[in-house]
Write a structure and sequence with these properties.
By secondary structure, this protein is an alpha/beta fold. It has helices at residues 14-23, 48-61, 153-163, 172-182, 206-234; strands spanning 2-7, 25-28, 31-34, 37-43, 66-75, 85-93, 97-100, 103-106, 125-126, 140-145, 167-169, 186-195. Strand 2 (25-28) and strand 3 (31-34) form a beta hairpin. Helix 1 packs across helix 5 and helix 2 runs parallel beside helix 4.
Length: 235
């Protein structure tokens, strides 16, 4: 099985990289052999532009059986605790469009895109998990992707009213779009580092979020490799 693990920064998956160094055979700078699986690691860069370019280059040369995006994120939900890990099921592009006086209109609102044009479902990029080879056990989230992290009350209120999001990241929509276009089963795993509110980094819990994210990432990759070994054994 060929697995792609991608993240915006090395910081977010550093414990996972340390795990690979200890438990796998390193084939090249970014490729590892782990329990019969081939694991590629792609540090794609921060934001949708870098992510789209990096994934486009990668998918031109490689076709993994599954792809995983791992990262930290903010949440709009105060009932979710910091450090919680979720699987983002759907993504909206929440800052691509036009300002119309005091309103934001995305490309669907201004009819430059049509609802449910491939690979969109309605106005969102949906991962139904149907092609994912494992049972999906994480809480699912509806996410928005933005190029500018939200940190003002009017912006946050506008996003909540329009998209009703659970999470916010800077790369998720690009990952969903690329995988849906290439028909690659995928999973976006996010750990919550902060609440989406007026910016105050003293409240953020990045170390806890990174630890929990990587614990889940290791568990997921191990399960994928075990599943693959079982399929091969019974083939």
């Amino acid at each position: 099985m060929k697995i792609l693990v991608t993240a915006a920064t090395t910081l977010e998956i550093k414990p996972f990289l340390q795990y690979l160094e200890q438990h796998s055979q390193q084939v090249s700078d970014h490729r590892f052999r782990l329990a019969g699986c081939e694991v590629d690691v792609l540090i794609a860069g921060i934001g949708m532009m870098h992510t789209a370019f990096s994934l486009g280059k990668y998918f031109t040369l490689h076709t993994p059986h599954v792809a995983i995006q791992a990262g930290i994120c903010g949440t709009f939900r105060k009932d979710w605790h910091l450090g919680a890990v979720v699987a983002v099921e759907r993504e909206h592009l929440a800052d691509l469009g036009a300002e119309d006086n005091d309103q934001f209109k995305d490309l669907f609102d201004i009819n430059l895109w049509q609802q449910s044009q491939h690979p969109f479902t309605g106005a969102s990029l949906v991962n139904t998990f149907r092609a994912w080879p494992l049972a999906q056990e994480l809480p699912t989230a509806s996410g928005i992707s933005v190029n500018r992290v939200s940190g003002s009350a009017p912006t946050i209120a506008q996003l909540e009213a329009k998209y009703k999001p659970d999470t916010e990241s800077m790369e998720g929509a690009a990952f969903h779009y690329a995988c849906l276009q290439e028909n690659i089963p995928f999973l976006q795993i996010r750990s919550i580092s902060n609440y989406v509110e007026i910016r105050d980094k003293s409240k953020w819990q990045i170390p806890t979020a990174v630890k929990n994210l990587n614990d889940e990432l290791v568990r997921t990759v191990e399960q994928l490799c075990s599943h693959y070994a079982s399929v091969i054994k019974n083939f």
